[in-house]
Design goal:
Length: 178
């Protein structure tokens, strides 16, 4: 919730190290959230130049404008990268996001599960897994993972709206769970 303060902090990091991929990717995420997709894409490209073999950088690059413009190529590249790095949480998450944008929920759930298996404390991985389970009409598992996501969000930053998750939990708990 402190986006401007975070932006200033990450820009200071870049003043000390212009190739810090964590700072570049964080600034790209901030720019994307602020509705500046061209700036976000430029920052992702800078990160890719700085560290082309980093899975998080590869995932961010393939999740950005490239995935929107040409989802088939992005999917192919992600699968190729995953063939050599199958346990990469960022790459599995990026592929899951690509599948979810296409409403390919079964495939999304599978790769979100892989992302959670690799980094089970990441609130966004847990949340997206819960959403995919929710779409697949698996309310018990969805509730479990929504709760895990909320718990993880108390320890690490999360991109999802906690109030909306609480509301969805209430809706799911009001339904008979299978």
């Amino acid at each position: 919730g402190e986006m401007e303060a975070a932006r200033r902090d990450f820009e200071q990091v870049l003043q000390r190290d212009a190739n810090n991929t964590d700072a570049l990717l964080a600034l790209a995420a901030i720019a994307q959230r602020q509705g500046r997709p061209a700036d976000a894409e430029g920052l992702r490209q800078r990160a890719m130049i700085a560290n082309p073999s980093d899975p998080a950088t590869q995932a961010a690059t393939l999740s950005g404008a490239a995935a929107e413009a040409d989802p088939q190529t992005a999917e192919s590249r992600l699968k190729t990268l995953l063939s050599t790095q199958p346990e990469s949480a960022p790459l599995n998450f990026a592929l899951g996001n690509l599948y979810s944008r296409q409403s390919r929920w079964t495939e999304a759930q599978q790769v979100y599960f892989n992302a959670v298996a690799a980094d089970g404390d990441n609130p966004d991985y847990l949340f997206n897994l819960a959403v995919s389970l929710d779409h697949l009409r698996q309310p018990r598992l969805a509730v479990q993972h929504y709760r895990l996501a909320l718990d993880a969000a108390t320890k690490r930053p999360a991109a999802f709206d906690r109030d909306k998750v609480q509301k969805r939990l209430g809706e799911l708990q009001g339904e008979p769970l299978r």
